[in-house]
Design brief:
Elements: E1 4-9, E2 19-20, E3 23-24, H1 25-42, E4 46-49, H2 59-68, E5 73-80, E6 91-95, H3 101-116, E7 120-125, H4 130-133, E8 139-146, H5 150-158, H6 160-182, E9 185-192, H7 195-206, E10 212-217, E11 220-228, H8 231-243, E12 249-252
Parallel strand pairs: 1-4, 1-5, 5-8, 6-7
Antiparallel strand pairs: 2-3, 6-8, 9-11, 9-12, 10-11
Helix pairs in contact: 1-6, 3-6
């Protein structure tokens, strides 16, 4: 899976983030981010970290880093905080807007974290956050429980590895979904050892109005018609070509 994910541990350096009973958000964020990154790397994903130590970067710097590193996804890990202790509990993931793969990613992470034991608050659109606004790739900000919730801290302390795995699996699940969405169907109408024969057939079918390519596969040359996201449409075209006398085969790419 040739995918690069930038993992951002929220806050750092002089910016502690939220604090509660001696607990600092920046430390929880970094510990969880490194653990998630290790799991993703074990799954063959190229991981870039915004920070691996206690340093400060502005949110705009973090977004620029994601863009500079050509990350495919940006995941910022934080902990939430209520106005009063034990006022709220649960996980929530923030996104810049709804309706695309970032929302799918947010929901997948929330659902996996709910399986660990957290209350799933859901997703929320936050257009003012620099790491969501300034990134060119799909970006989410995970609020992994409330730091001033005894319930959430107990879940965190007792299930840390499971929490890291839940976030990682939510990411992997989304990447796999995206890879499936990138796949398409083609109709093979001939396979030749002689490239000239393949070219002749390709020209013949092209004159019928189809989009055709010749692709070398090992020592053979395949004549391929179309690129179809919908299998049923590919089968309809295949039946027409077969009726016209061509030896056809639908192939998933």
């Amino acid at each position: 899976m040739a995918t690069r994910v930038l993992l951002d541990a929220g806050h750092g350096g002089w910016d502690n983030g939220a604090t509660f009973m001696g607990r600092k958000e920046k430390e929880d964020n970094l510990n969880l981010t490194l653990a998630v990154g290790e799991i993703l790397e074990q799954n063959g994903i190229d991981v870039v970290f915004s920070r691996t130590e206690d340093i400060y970067q502005s949110p705009a710097e973090k977004a620029r880093l994601g863009n500079q590193k050509n990350a495919d996804f940006f995941v910022s890990i934080h902990r939430n905080s209520g106005a009063e202790a034990n006022q709220y509990s649960g996980v929530q993931t923030l996104i810049y807007n709804e309706g695309d793969i970032k929302e799918v990613l947010a929901n997948n992470i929330n659902e996996r974290l709910a399986e660990v034991g957290f209350n799933n608050i859901g997703t929320e659109v936050r257009k003012e956050l620099a790491v969501l606004r300034g990134t060119k790739m799909p970006a989410v900000l995970v609020e992994a429980g409330f730091i001033n919730s005894d319930i959430d801290n107990a879940i965190w302390d007792e299930n840390f590895d499971a929490i890291a795995n839940a976030i990682a699996q939510g990411i992997v699940e989304t990447l796999n979904m995206e890879e499936r969405d990138k796949r398409f169907y083609r109709i093979q109408v001939g396979l030749f050892q002689n490239p000239e024969n393949a070219s002749r057939l390709a020209n013949e079918i092209r004159e019928m109005g189809y989009t055709v390519e010749v692709e070398q596969i090992g020592k053979y040359y395949a004549v391929l018609v179309g690129k179809f996201n919908d299998f049923s449409r590919a089968k309809r075209i295949e039946r027409v070509l077969r009726k016209d006398g061509y030896d056809t085969l639908v192939i998933l790419y």
